[in-house]
Amino acid sequence: MTLVEAAQDVLDQAAKMFVDEASAKAVSHARYRLDGPLRVAIAGKVKAGKSTLLNALVGEPLAPTDTGECTKIITWYRNGHTYEVLLHPRDGSAPQQVRFHRDDGAIEVDLGARQAIEVDRLEITWPSQGLKQITLIDTPGIDSLTDGISTRAFEFLDPEDSETAADAVLYLMKHIHASDLRLLEAFHDDSVSSPNPINAVAVLSRADEIGAGRLDSMASARRIAGRYGEDRRLRRLTQIVVPVAGLLAETAATLTQAEFRSLQQLAEVPTKEMERVMLSADRFVEAKPETPLTSLERRELLDRFGLFGVRLSLALMRRKVVQSSVELSEELTTRSGLSELQTVLTTLFVDRSDVLKARSALLVVERLCNENPELEGASRLLLEVERIIAGAHPFNELTTMAALRSGWVKGRPTDLLAIERVLGSHGSTRWQRLEVDPATSEEDLRTAAMSQLGRWQRVAENPFSSHDLSTAARVAVRTLEAIVTESRANQEASGAAAQR
User: Fold this and answer.
1) What strands lie across the sheet with 168-173, from one edge to the other?
2) CA 426, CA 346: separation in Å to the nearest integer?
3) Which of 156, 285, 288, 457 is most buried by its number of CB atoms within 10 A?
4) How far apart are the two ends of the chain, measured CA to CA in Å?
5) Region(s) of the chain under CATH 1.10.287
6) Rounded to 5 degrees, what are φ and ψ at 80?
7) By 3-state DSSP, what share of the chain in percent is helix, strand and coil, each rounded to 5?
């Protein structure tokens, strides 16, 4: 029985046991959620660039972005065959369809007579390739000046609110502030069945601004992200820190041919002359009349690309790195950090979606059992949840990684990092766990796994290893044994096929 099947069986038992309206709704919601795509929340402070990053990940500008505070309502973006916006009132009344229109690409929702504080969430259904594998959830800023808005993200991400909690979170930050750590702690829990660092990724947002828009801004941002990733406070709460220039990422995903032609005109200006013009945003917009484009057109480019994006695009064109809008879009996607973030989303979230969704479902049942201990069968079902958690190796991997990152396991830093990789900190595929090339043959994969297997068996059996380190090593041993078994089976299957 797979982990998802085990979670489904537990939910079936829970549906028969918890028959009151609220509990039945929670179980039904969990069952629906188990069959759907992974839910990833995007959180952070006001103007951290949450909506901009969401648009970049989707590949089209659905969420509104401007100089004000855009997101005051938790907004879900899910894939579907129709265009629809559902409003869920905070008073618990039935959701209702509301009118909407698209303004400059972004979806503008008509709340009617309702205020934002009266709305629990909006669910936007939109046919989108970027939303097929994950449902993205835009949350309000955690330091909003609007009464009641700033607590929405905390309420939503707190594991206690299991009916609306996300399976994973992208947290946008520019510095490590106490408020950032508090929100990540709201999404973190030491229980196996609750969220832990493996499903939280920090994004160093607006990364191009760290280097004041210079061409080496992203290199500076990567160094800072690396330092943040080593910070014990943040390392305990998140899997990795990825730098992303959100505005450039969004523009790369929605680049137009007209914008490419405008940049081409600017690229034809002598480099030294253009460098003087681009010393600041004001100089760029207010350049002398003989500079290509009108001031309005240059302002529009600045709004879309930022100073860093314009400088980078011109440099790429002058060096003949790109010669079409498609090539520029691809290059900017990579250089903005979006490609790296998409890879992280795939390896750490999407590839592990069954584990994350099963855990979310079991969390619902765990909470209901704890809240209703007097019900007949509640204690038995709770034991079943604990049995699944204890017996499922993917859960043991997540728990062990959480322990490693929290500093509970003591040992040499190189050993601890090596165990983390085996357990899937850099992705759940065999080659990622073993740190080998994806094209590695089954025989070489098996050899690499056997080598590491012997290493961690010795650590696990060493009487001088601490109890926690021995436990972590044994989890790594089981992971490696599974890799060896799979490689052997694949080799045997290939040999049998060759003989036929």
Assistant:
1) 96-97, 84-89, 119-125, 74-78, 134-138, 38-44, 168-173, 200-204, 241-243
2) 11
3) 156
4) 32
5) 409-499
6) -170, 175
7) 55, 10, 35
CATH 1.10.10, applies to 409-499: no
Quick: pLDDT tens for 116-143.
Answer: 888 888 999 999 988 988 999 998 877 6
Burial 192-203 (b: 16+ CB within 10 A, else e): bbbbbbbbbbbb
Name the segment(s) of the chain with CATH classification 3.40.50.300.
Answer: 38-245+338-351
CATH of domain 38-245+338-351: 3.40.50.300
- Reduced to 3 states (helix: H, G, I; strand: E, B; else coil), residue 171 is strand
**Tokens, residue 50:** 């949450």
348-383: per-residue pLDDT in tens?
Answer: 788 888 888 888 888 889 889 998 889 888 999 999
- For residues 431 and 437, give the distance between their C-alpha atoms in angstroms, rounded to a whole number: 6
Asked if 296 contacts 285 with a C-beta cutoff of 8 angstroms, the reply is: no
Nearest Cα residue to 141 out of 195, 68, 206: 68
Count of beta carbons in the 10 Å neighbourhood of residue 431? 15
Strand-strand pairing, 74-78 and 106-109: unpaired
